[in-house]
Amino acid sequence: MDIIPTMTVTVRDRRGESPWGVGLTSPRTRTVTIPANCRRCGEKRGEPKGHNTSDDGEWYWVQTWNNPCGERTPNDD
After folding, report:
1. Other Cβ atoms closer than 10 A to 69
2. Strand, helix or coil for residue 36
3. 40's torsion region: left (phi>0), alpha (psi -120 to 50) or beta?
4. Taking CA atoms, which of 5, 33, 56, 76 is between 20 and 30 Å from 19?
């Protein structure tokens, strides 16, 4: 049985927020474990870096990374 390498990152959890257009945005984040390799090219994902950002004046912190093939990974990977 092969062991799949993983990485743990903090991402925005849009599913845990109110639907768009319903009240103010309260960004939520969660820590998830995802495969360490890109699902498109199979190469190791880029190194996660912290990113402070805001939405409707509410600040939150997540991690972003660049995959070697340029694929932008959605939060639901």
Report:
1. 10
2. coil
3. alpha
4. 33
Length of the chain: 77
Residue with tokens 């190194």: 47
What pLDDT, on the 0 to 100 scale, is given for residue 63? 95
Domain residue spans in the chain? 8-18+48-62
In sequence order, what DSSP letters do the residues of the chain get, joined into one string? Answer: -PPPPEEEEEEE-GGGSPPTTSS-----EEEEEEESB-TTT-SBPPPPEEEEEEETTEEEEEEE---TT-PPPPTT-
Give pLDDT tens digits for 6-50: 999 999 998 888 777 666 678 899 999 999 999 888 899 999 999
Residue 4 has which token pair? Answer: 């799949």
